[in-house]
Amino acid sequence: MLVGNEWSAEDRRELADLDQLLRSLALSPRLPPEQIARLLERHRALLQERHEIEQALVDLGPTWQETKAALNRLHSLMRQPPPEDGEAG
Asked: Which of 18, 26, 44, 54 supports an S-S bond with 2, CB 3.0-4.6 Å?
């Protein structure tokens, strides 16, 4: 969740956990390390997307101009293609 324009403590912890998991890749003997890395990178991209959407929602203000700008930003975020495998977004 977004706190002001900053990442929440929960999201920062989750990102740190992802970084640690990416470094170790010791999740499961059933999945190849490449698949694990791809899944973790996709999760990181989704966290970033959620953060950007939450920032846009915070910007929704009482005036139409602020609301229109925030909605345009949300529209732009939602129309972006998903990151390719291995991209953080």
From this structure: 54
**DSSP string of 43-86?**
HHHHHHHHHHHHHHHHT--SSHHHHHHHHHHHHHHHHSPPPPTT
What pTM did the predictor assign? 0.49
For residue range 11-27, list pLDDT tens digits in order. Answer: 788 888 877 777 676 55
DSSP string of 3-48, one letter each residue? ETTEE-HHHHHHHHHHHHHHHH--S-TTS-HHHHHHHHHHHHHHHH
* Domain residue extents for the chain: 2-79
